Amino acid sequence: MSETELSTRLDRIEILLSTLIEQEQAKEYYTTAEVAKMLQRAEFTVREWCRLRRVLAEKRACGRGRAKEWIISHEELDRIRNEGLLPIQ
């Protein structure tokens, strides 16, 4: 392999790596702020969806005393994107 071929391959690899870094990587759980940003809604709106059970979410300790924050699973985020919110109960 010549030097120019090697250089070309390395350039392509760098471009692919930077593309992967820029892509949003799937996490197991997201905060309400992250979901709000992905769905282009206000964080307050997402918290209300959780509180009203329009989104299946869980509470977890967040390091701010006894207060807990909502977390939303990746599967639930996909469901919201594909099917929309659950009906008000």
Automatic annotation (TrEMBL):
Q: The organism sits in which domain of life?
A: Bacteria
The name on file for this protein is Helix-turn-helix domain protein
Naturally occurring in which organism (per UniProt)? Novipirellula aureliae
Q: What is the lineage of its organism?
A: Bacteria, Pseudomonadati, Planctomycetota, Planctomycetia, Pirellulales
